[in-house]
């Protein structure tokens, strides 16, 4: 193990201040992920399936012992208009927010963003009834 790899492995918080320029294979879809094209120095998820690994407790600390797959469950828009992905660990349920990367799959991002509209928490046929119950006239025509 060379000196730089020892520093990465044993120095706490190394990835908070240093770029993560490592190539890796996604554990979910098997795609080779390279740091180029991310638009950031800190690639932390696959641009194809948007999945990640549970490595950090705080960003860059590599202190999580879980190592589970982090699945993308939602997207949100930050104050500055930048999109971020909400990941949930399939093993321990931990949630984290990660900036999208420049080369992320736009169709996957949009499908995650549209999921609440395509799968509402109630039967869509009940909208008129629910509207009436809330004091509206109940007709969507």
Task: Give keywords.
141 residues; 23% helix; 19% strand; elongated
Short description, anyone?
The chain has a 4-stranded antiparallel sheet with strand order 3-4-5-6, with helices on one face. A two-stranded antiparallel sheet has the order 1-2. The protein is α+β, with helices and mostly antiparallel strands and 141 residues long. The chain has helices at residues 3-10, 14-17, 106-118, 127-133; strands at residues 24-25, 32-33, 52-53, 69-77, 83-89, 95-99.
Q: Overview of this structure, please?
A:
This protein has helices at 3-10, 14-17, 106-118, 127-133; strands at 24-25, 32-33, 52-53, 69-77, 83-89, 95-99. The chain has 141 residues and is of the alpha+beta class. It has one domain. The strands form two sheets. A four-stranded antiparallel β-sheet has the order 3-4-5-6, with helices on one face. A hairpin with a 5-residue loop joins strand 4 (69-77) and strand 5 (83-89).
The DSSP helix count reads 4
Largest beta-sheet characterization: 4 strands, antiparallel
- Fraction of residues in helices? 10-25%
What is the number of domains? 1
SSE layout and pairing:
Blueprint: H1 3-10, H2 14-17, E1 24-25, E2 32-33, E3 52-53, E4 69-77, E5 83-89, E6 95-99, H3 106-118, H4 127-133
